[in-house]
From TrEMBL:
Designated name of the protein: DUF1161 domain-containing protein
Lineage: Bacteria, Pseudomonadati, Pseudomonadota, Gammaproteobacteria, Pseudomonadales
Signal peptide limits: 1-19
Keywords: Signal
Source organism superkingdom: Bacteria
InterPro entries, alphabetized: DUF1161 (IPR010595)
Entry keyword Signal: yes
Length: 74
């Protein structure tokens, strides 16, 4: 019984860590590196509140799901 309780406690802690996700600036720079590697030159990446991506494409989520990273070309 104690093993089950310990396992449940560890899984709940791990779930919290996964929900936190990466910091926004770290994820933004990883996405930028991938875009640069594909040869794209004129673009912007912007961290915005979730749902505020009116004129761009959401390419990532950070801040525990409260922020989006928006890609705009040009």
């Amino acid at each position: 019984m104690k093993k089950i309780l310990v396992a449940v406690a560890l899984l709940s802690l791990a779930g919290t860590a996964f929900a936190a996700g990466k910091p926004c600036e770290e994820l933004k720079s990883e996405i930028a590196a991938k875009i640069d590697a594909n040869g794209v030159q004129h673009y912007t990446l912007e961290v915005v509140d979730k749902g505020a991506a009116a004129d761009g494409k959401v390419v990532g989520s950070c801040g525990g799901g409260t922020k989006d990273i928006v890609y705009k070309r040009g």
